[in-house]
Predict the structure.
Amino acid sequence: MMTEEDIIQGCIKEKRQAQEALYKKYAPKLLGLCCRYAKDMLEAEDILQEGFIKVFDNISSYSGKGSFEGWLKRIMINEALNKIRARKEKLDFMDDFDFDVPTSILSTDTLHHKELLQILNRLPEGYRVVFNLFAIEGFSHQEIAEKLNIGHSTSRSQYAKARNYLQKLINEIEKVKL
């Protein structure tokens, strides 16, 4: 069994066994990340593939400081955002969605991970991207604003609206389950 350091050093030396070990170790988790940003599974797999190409091309730039998995996630997130930009579609930042739903933090014991991913994918793309970057990836609104070329207040409002919309969707699903 190769250690993470062995895998990294092997990848730097372009050893196929190390590259395969890296892919097998991290691809499932990173595919889940890609799915949160992609419009469908095909696009998520494309993001993953392109992201791993960048990982292998740039692994020698990993400094060893901080989490290696975090470094991989940043590459995949950037690749996902590049894919969204490449579609030449402007992110759908909605200003006129109004929901009468409490802004309590999303929490549910009755939904499974797969169901939550399906619910996230029902969000308009602008909501979904901001929600993922802030709530899941931990970026600040200022960082999101810089990544998406929007104002930080737009990031804040899109996050709040996404959270309200998600809560509404979850409440509807939970009512159906009862």
Summary: The helical segments are 4-12, 16-37, 41-58, 68-86, 113-120, 125-136, 141-148, 152-177. The chain has eight helices and no strands. The longest helix spans residues 152-177. The chain has two domains: 4-86, 113-177.
